[in-house]
Amino acid sequence: MFEPIQDRIRVESAPKLSDETFIVLRDFIYSKTGIYFPVKKKYLLEGRLLKRLQVLKIGHFEDYVHLLKYSQQKENEFEYLCNMITINETFFFRNEAQIEAFQQKFADEVIKAKKAFNNRTLRIWSAACSSGEEPYTIAILYLEFLKPKYPDLNIEIIGTDINTAVLDMACKAEYNQYSIRSTPKLFLEKYFEQSGGVYKLKQEVKDLVRFEQVNLMDREKMRHMIHFDFIFCANVLIYFDEKAKIQVVGDLFNSLNRGGYLFIGFSEMLHRISTAFKLVSIPKTTAYKKE
Length: 291
Ligand SMILES: C[S@@+](CC[C@H](N)C(=O)[O-])C[C@H]1O[C@@H](n2cnc3c(N)ncnc32)[C@H](O)[C@@H]1O
What we know:
CATH topology of the largest domain: Rossmann fold
Structural class: alpha/beta
Order of helices and strands: HHHHHHEHEHEHHEEHEHEHEEE
Radius of gyration: 21 Å
CATH superfamily of the largest domain: Vaccinia Virus protein VP39
Largest sheet: 7 strands, mixed
Strand content: 15-25%
Low-confidence stretches: 5-11
Bound molecules: S-adenosylmethionine
Number of domains: 2
Distance between the termini: 67 Å
Mean pLDDT: 94
CATH class of the largest domain: Alpha Beta
């Protein structure tokens, strides 16, 4: 079958990402975000950026790189770039074993240790929180289990991500069936309002989480992210190479209070990345403690 002549013209005139420009772009993205595109993923980057070039009416990837690196709109364009290249897969109650361990073991340990020093504020950071499902899951666990047990406990939950579009979704807190598919029915009824296939989080949950844009590779910003008792940094280190992982995990260590814990994704490990933490293994999950 022949493709229509208009389509052939469109394909032939679409900007092409040359190997050289791909390397320049890839190195730029890597140095700013830690996200590494291997050569085999060139097509992915090209496909995502092509749409942006069309919107900007830019005919060559080389001009786009110039815009990103040197133009007055470079900061604005970098935000667009991050929003296009990140993978934001997430859902409520994603890592059941980790959630159970947090709620049944680690939270008690840390809260009791803090109480001994008259500190009643628990600080939790969901770093790379995407559209908010992870920090809101923690907020629900607090309302359901920790608040009744420790009525004088204050909690601060901060959700951060590099992608501003997903942070806007997090602030809105309206979710679809896909996001809530692992949420226990009881919590769905108690903490969400459902209407026409949309699950809206109730205000009491929303009020517990504050969102902010933080690039985990931005060392200046990371220096201000301190005094956390728990950090959840799940399913993001997989996009970084070893050097970027070492930098980010080192900074997360500094962000934790002594006695605090770092949780990472189910398929992630800190082997060869950091020896600063004590690995705590409990059935079906692990946590990294700052002693
Ligand atoms: C797959 S999602 C994981 C979401 C959630 N933590 C979870 O486990 O369900 C990965 C998130 O990492 C974010 N991300 C990627 N690079 C980042 C960086 N350098 N700094 C902060 N967030 C980043 C992406 O925007 C994306 O929302």
